[in-house]
Design brief:
mainly alpha; Four Helix Bundle (Hemerythrin (Met), subunit A); 169 residues; Mini-circle protein; 54% helix; 5% strand; 2 strands; DinB/YfiT-like; two-stranded antiparallel ribbon; globular
Length: 169
């Protein structure tokens, strides 16, 4: 796994730069929380009864990136990657058969697709989220993604500390 440097968002910038910078900061934070761990550690559940793991969070965020940027904003027919109507938590629940390299590569591909979907669009451009039956502008999508990553990075902090005592980043 290539560990990205975590970009520091500028303290003074235009709205779009600020939103994109904070989203990239949080994406990199999740990658840093996973850095240096082996497959078993990345698969390790946080604490009973939760089955949440770092690998599960990465898989979940791949599906979230896809949902908001590709399905909603770009209006692509891109189905879920890991979960289904029959198994809605499958993205978060990993098994021995699930691998880190695939999860990480899929997540990075969805981030690249998200950037492409947003490229050249106005923050006022709207997409449609069928699962909520509403329109959302790109500004809202960026804000939601920042919130989603921030919340799950808090989970990642606790999971990582439980695995090897590492804190920070």
């Amino acid at each position: 796994m290539i560990v990205p440097e975590r970009p520091q968002p500028p303290t003074v910038s235009d709205e779009r730069t600020s939103l994109e910078s904070w989203l990239d900061f949080h994406r990199a934070t999740l990658a840093l929380k996973c850095a240096g761990l082996d497959e078993a550690q990345l698969r390790e559940a946080s604490a009973p009864p939760s089955s949440m793991s770092l690998m599960g969070l990465v898989r979940h965020m791949a599906d979230v990136e896809r949902s908001w940027f590709r399905r909603c904003l770009a209006r692509e027919e891109a189905g879920p990657i890991y979960y289904s109507d029959e198994d809605p938590d499958r993205d978060l629940e990993v098994t021995e058969a699930d691998g880190w390299e695939e999860a990480y590569a899929t997540w990075q591909a969805e981030i690249a697709a998200a950037r492409e979907a947003a490229r050249g669009r106005s923050l006022d451009d709207r997409g449609f989220a069928p699962h909520r039956n509403k329109e959302f502008d790109l500004r809202w999508i960026y804000m939601h993604m920042i919130e989603e990553y921030a919340r799950h990075n808090g989970h990642a902090d606790l999971i990582r500390e439980r695995i090897d005592g590492a804190t920070g980043a």
